[in-house]
Every structure is written in structure tokens, then in C-alpha cells.
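Our consortium's second objective concerns turning raw sequence data into structural hypotheses that experimental partners can test. To show how far this objective has progressed, the report includes one record in full. It was chosen at random from the queue rather than selected for favorable results. The single chain below, 179 residues long, was entered without modification.
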Amino acid sequence: KKLILHTLSGFEGVGKSTIINHYNEQLKYYIIPETARLIIPLEDNVLEDSKDDLSYKSFISYLTNLHFLLSNKININCISDRNLIDSLTYLELYSKDQKIDINKLGDFVERFLETYNRETFYDKTFLITHPKDNFYIKNKIINDPERKYGLNEEQYKKDAEIWEDIYLNIAYKLQKRSL
């Protein structure tokens, strides 16, 4: 048996956590929760002097999770709420002045995978596209007290489309490098 690691990606409110919980409860997969849900509350107090972007912290966290699993030869079925590409997408979307060089990242990924005799970072990566129904967006996403997304339905759809385009562009570039 080997480590099986699937990831779910998508813009805010597409249902990643709901699907993750299904994998955990029904299929007995271990879960790697979304990093931002842990880090965002810390940024308001513990990490208030931190100068780097949340996307960098998430990126390091997702990489560390995989490193931990592989270095300890933990062979389980696991699903992650987001992945490295999500972090890169948010970085490109919200921090245009901060970049991670895709070619250098590809070189790192290849060395990392070779070290652990693994062909890819993730076994399967699923991109869940955003909902299109305005009623659903308003009632399940915009009015959700746990979310900070407070814009209107049309802005949500526009932002989600931009996010998905950036994600797919980065994923395409990295697909050639086994990420």
C-alpha cells in the first residue's frame, strides 16, 4: 500500500468542505483541512506583525503536510481541502508583486518526487467550478456568517471565473512538471 492523496480545489463556497467531510465520514479518508481557516484567525493577533502573504503560509503548509506524510511513510487514503496550486492562484490574484517562479518550483517538485519515489504530488486533483445560481450564491455563500465574502452575486461569479482561469493556467504549466 502507498499514500493515496487527492485534493479538492475551487473558489470560495463551491462545496469543498462538504465533499471532504463525505470522504471522511463515508469512505474513511483522512483529511487535510483548509490551511487558511487555521491561519486567518492567527493573522488577526498572533501573526499580526507577519509581513508575508497568507498564500505563502498556505503554500508552505500544504508542502509540509505532504513532506510529513511521505517522510514518515504514512500509507493512508487522504484528501486535502486545497493544494499548492490554490495557494499560487491566490498569490497571483491578490499579491501581484509577489511571485513564485514556476520553473524553479518545477525543479524543486521533480527533486522532491525523486526523493520519495513518487510520480506526482497528488494522485487526483479535482477542481470544483463555482455555482451559477444567484439564489444559492446569495443564501449559501454571501449570507454565510463564517465567510467574509460580502459582495453581490454577479461580483462573486466574476471573481470566481477569474480565480478559476488563473488556477487552470497555473495547473497547466505545472502539469508538465508532475505537480
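The partners drew two points from this record. The beta strands are 4-9, 30-32, 77-81, 124-127. DSSP finds seven helices and four strands in the chain. Both points have been shared with the crystallography group to help prioritize constructs.
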